[in-house]
From TrEMBL:
Domain of life according to the entry: Bacteria
UniProt protein name: Methyltransferase domain-containing protein
Molecular function GO terms recorded: methyltransferase activity
SUPFAM superfamilies, per the entry: S-adenosyl-L-methionine-dependent methyltransferases
Annotated InterPro entries: SAM-dependent_MTases_sf, TPMT
Entry-linked PANTHER family: CYSTEINE SULFINATE DESULFINASE_CYSTEINE DESULFURASE AND RELATED ENZYMES, PTHR32183
Organism per entry: Hymenobacter citatus
GO biological process, one term: methylation
Keyword terms, alphabetized: Methyltransferase, Phosphoprotein, S-adenosyl-L-methionine, Transferase
Amino acid sequence: MQPTQKLDASYWQGRYEAHQTGWDAGQITPPLRDYFVQLSGPNARRILIPGAGRGYEAEYLHGQGYPQVWVADVAPDALAALQTRVPDFPAEHLLLQDFFALTPAEPFDLLVEQTFFCALDPAQRPAYARQSAALLRPGGKLMGLLFDTEFSQPGPPFGGSAAEYRAYFEPYFDFVHFAPAYNSLKPRQGRELFICLRRKTEVKL
Ligand SMILES: C[S@@+](CC[C@H](N)C(=O)[O-])C[C@H]1O[C@@H](n2cnc3c(N)ncnc32)[C@H](O)[C@@H]1O
């Protein structure tokens, strides 16, 4: 389960330029939409969507009136697609940056995961958990979807299992929800975990 090439910014930008974006659902996915619907409503909570791609979750939240939604991605074309679709999305909330290098002035309240974790070199998974914890305030949440399956093709995407993922997140997070998703997109049904993890107060980063 190792990448056969370097998964850097030029790799991802190349995927967008070549229109090889099979992961792109073209809209917010039902598990994320259903989670957002039950939030208390538009407020100033700071939300980050890392590896956001074309940013359908950001579009949805922005459309619901959330003023503090941020996206980070290393591929300029991904962020440009969001900017074109949603011209009034704040340009300063489009971060053309490596997730692992983000050092925000203020911590986030919520991180949203959607086919970003599975796109990374699996060797970066412990660092993903650590960086997610570093970006969140104590009590802040990391929520979203993780594949609970292995893929026969070489990645990305890279698969994995709930037991594997638990070990990465346990040092930093309490597990509010960590179970098979019941409302996945059809092609992903039975192959996704819905996660909602609360950042512990005391963590060693
Ligand atoms: C599989 S795509 C998923 C995009 C989006 N979340 C979606 O579901 O449509 C992975 C995204 O992560 C971005 N990416 C990869 N490595 C990154 C990194 N280290 N920091 C920020 N973004 C990254 C890629 O450019 C790509 O847009």
